[in-house]
Amino acid sequence: MAVYLQVLEELEAEGEEIISSSKLAQLCGVNPSQIRKDLAYFGEFGVRGVGYYVTDLKESIKHFLGLDKTWNCAIVGIGNLGRALINHRAIKDKGYRIVGAFDWDPFKIGEKVGDLEIICTRRLKEKAKELNIQIGIITTPPNRAQRAANHIVEAGIKAILNFSPTRISVPDDVIVDYVEFSRYLIYLSFKLIHG
Amino acid sequence: MAVYLQVLEELEAEGEEIISSSKLAQLCGVNPSQIRKDLAYFGEFGVRGVGYYVTDLKESIKHFLGLDKTWNCAIVGIGNLGRALINHRAIKDKGYRIVGAFDWDPFKIGEKVGDLEIICTRRLKEKAKELNIQIGIITTPPNRAQRAANHIVEAGIKAILNFSPTRISVPDDVIVDYVEFSRYLIYLSFKLIHG
DNA sequence: CTCACATTGAGAAAAAATTCACAAACCAAA
DNA sequence: TTTGGTTTGTGAATTTTTTCTCAATGTGAG
């Protein structure tokens, strides 16, 4: 679905107003029926005999994916990875705003990263309400990840993205996703061995 | 498959010598038949009436995935993200070694990151042979990504991991994989909206 | 050695995902 | 208005994936 969105945005930028499922399928590298099934799943957007209106469809998918609003994120752990994410283009562009930078290290607190000031992790709860933070991102060293998660949960945030290579345990109503760099490398080396 | 491996490593650390497909399935959160099919796919490792020998199975999977040897990687683009990867634990632990750090910026060249010295990207080809680099990792800004890719291809490296939010074009015999942080965030916000 | 029990490997069955195929609907031109 | 050319939406057919089932095989006790 995210692939369709990306292609649709490119089409819109090129000034295309209407696209058929077969052309879109070609651009996405999938089967036309696949596209029609996927799109029919959350509404009827096409016009028979015509195709899909690029802008309308793009907006509908964005709405479906929740990309028509901005999401406020907090980063916990301001090392190299945290700083990289704060400055990362693609994240901003998709409607995700990093509005808080948290760390435990007293020497870092008060330091500026971009236009954010690093705040003590203990103040996460207070700041989460003030800044309406919906997603917490953990970029601490592994041994601090669980503590970071605890602070995030405590602050009432219901979604966590964990970059630290450790499993964390949270209540059932909190969604967690893991970014594992090694997975990508395993895929590549696997491909290098087997066709 | 990578999940099985992780669980097996934990089991081995706990001193377990034998595991049945049903127990392993429980730990991985999948169906026992699934496990047996997956494992049977690349050999017969189990013993009927007994189960699987944890260490043997772990080694077999590692071999299958190509994790029984070390892979040499080069990072092109030494910003925050590049530095984060160089220092990242999980990567080293899986047998991937970052052996080269490359950047275009003359002010960075010669600087030390961990025990690596930043080298000019133009010397990538020469260094790739010397260091036997098999995987190139792009962590440049988007507008430099294609140029980085060109240098990597030029150096005869056949696998690229691109962290930059741009598509790159390379010859057919070069494998490319993309790390898109926004995908993870989209998943989380989607889950926050729909169950 | 034989028997009772446990567990794999693999074929059969079931479920899920993908693709096909075509009626229904739309547009444009005559 | 009618006709011909498109393209969607959807039920049917197909393919793929997952799960079930059970004979084959191994262990250990008697």
Q: Which key phrases capture this entry?
A:
Arc Repressor Mutant, subunit A, homodimer, 7-stranded mixed beta sheet, alpha/beta, Rossmann fold, 45% helix
Description:
Chain A has 195 residues and is of the alpha/beta class. The first copy, chain A, has two domains: 2-65, Winged helix-like DNA-binding domain superfamily/Winged helix DNA-binding domain (Arc Repressor Mutant, subunit A); 71-183, NAD(P)-binding Rossmann-like Domain (Rossmann fold, 3-Layer(aba) Sandwich). Helix content of chain A is 45%, strand content 19%. Chain A contains nine helices and nine strands. Chain A has a seven-stranded mixed beta sheet with strand order 5-6-4-3-7-8-9, sandwiched between helices. In chain A, strands 1-2 form a two-stranded antiparallel ribbon. Chain A starts with a helix and ends with a helix. Chain A binds chain B through residues 2, 65-67, 71, 73, 79-81, 83-85, 87-91, 93-94, 96, 134-135, 142, 158-161, 165, 175, 177, 179-193, and chain B through 2, 65-67, 71, 73, 79-81, 83-85, 87-91, 93-94, 96, 134-135, 142, 158-161, 165, 175, 177, 179-193. Chain A binds a DNA duplex (30 and 30 nucleotides) through α3.
